[in-house]
Amino acid sequence: MKRIILIFLSSFALTANAQVKTLTLKDAVSYALQNKADAKKAKLEVENSEYKIQEVRSRALPQISANGNLTYNPVLQTSVIDGAGFGAPGTTIQATFGQKWTSGAGISLTQAIFDQSVFTGLRAAKSTREFYQINDQLTEEQVIERVANNYYQVYVQRQKLILLDSTFANTTKVRNIVKGQFDNGLAKKIDLDRIVVKMSNISTQRQQILNAVQLQENALKFYMGMPIETQIEIPQTEFEVTPAALTEAPNLANRTEYLLLKKQEELLVLQKKSIEAEYYPTLSLSAGYNYLGQGPEMPLFAKPADGVYWSDYSAIGLNLRVPIFTGFGTRAKVRQADVQIRSLQEDLKDTKLSLDLDYKNATTQIQNSIITIENQKENMLLAGEILKNTNNNYLQGLASLTDLLDAENASIEAQNNYTAAILDYKVAEIALIKSKGELKTLIK
């Protein structure tokens, strides 16, 4: 018995020494949306989409670059020329052209005048931003759902722990009574041994539940992005059962999952148009200005007196490209894009059916859970009354110890069933709120 008491005291001491943070569901969800890596990464994707838009927009702006070079030619190329051009017909002249050193510097500009792929890319970039914004919303909803479900799981485990603590305290009182009866010769040793075994079993169960509580709390903290060592407390008022609105069916077209697929469909259509843009001609403007130095010595810092001469030149042009035949490669890519669009449209149909299923299942589970909670509540109250009466009868010698232990076991089971029914209801409630696309109402 001393070992059992030490286990209880040590477990209480661990929680007493740490500062406990009271955590409502709203607090838990708000904390997760600010600290969980998934939520942060989704927001970074939204930020990154702005840079992608800037990248695509840059293709429509002038492209300006500067260039420079310095070349040394150890051996100049010799060309063979017909001497007739120099007044010496019938002879061949070997001439060496160029200089040992050449250096150049210049600036060039390219401006797209017409490029259908650039225009399509700009539209796709804006749709990509909207896609990531919707994805951010979906990620937040997923974080909320995971946190809420784990939050209620922690509640169930803690309720089981409270129940075992209460049972242990009541069983301790019975053990003291039986021990007193045994010391006075009014009870058998086997009765005392049965009570001791019962307390040992409760202690073992409590340790298992305590471990389950810790594991579930760790999971909740992980989904929240909270440090694992933080001690949390969940207020009882979070678990009042109120009938949910079951009459108003959700508008599936507003569900984030559906909107995300629709936006993805839009992007695939733009991708197809971007490929089709390869059929269109492109027109661009190019311009350049360069400065060239040549001579037998390094042109840098050299002068004409050193045999080094500098000259400039420039060019402005229009570049037209008209695709004529690409070996049917563009056509194949367009057809591939079309297949992707049709495949996504099938996903849209399937997703709509899935969302309908989620709503129907959630409403059914809610209705069944409400009935189960009412039944289990009545059963729990009845089991508690039976235990109370059996305990009084035992003290008066009108009931056996077996009757008392059976009544106690029945009361524990009834209370656990009631707690489990509340969990089922809360999980179904989260599913129903999700099916309506209203998970963010949990943080309002």
TrEMBL record:
The keyword Translocase does not apply. It comes from the Bacteria. SUPFAM superfamilies: Outer membrane efflux proteins (OEP). GO terms for cellular component: cell outer membrane; efflux pump complex. Pfam families: OEP. It is found in: Cell outer membrane. Its main location: membrane. Keywords: Cell outer membrane, Membrane, Signal, Transmembrane, Transmembrane beta strand, Transport. Residues 1-18 form the signal peptide. InterPro entries: OMP_efflux (IPR003423), TolC-like (IPR051906). GO terms for molecular function: efflux transmembrane transporter activity; porin activity. Belongs to the outer membrane factor (OMF) (TC 1.B.17) family. This is TolC family protein.
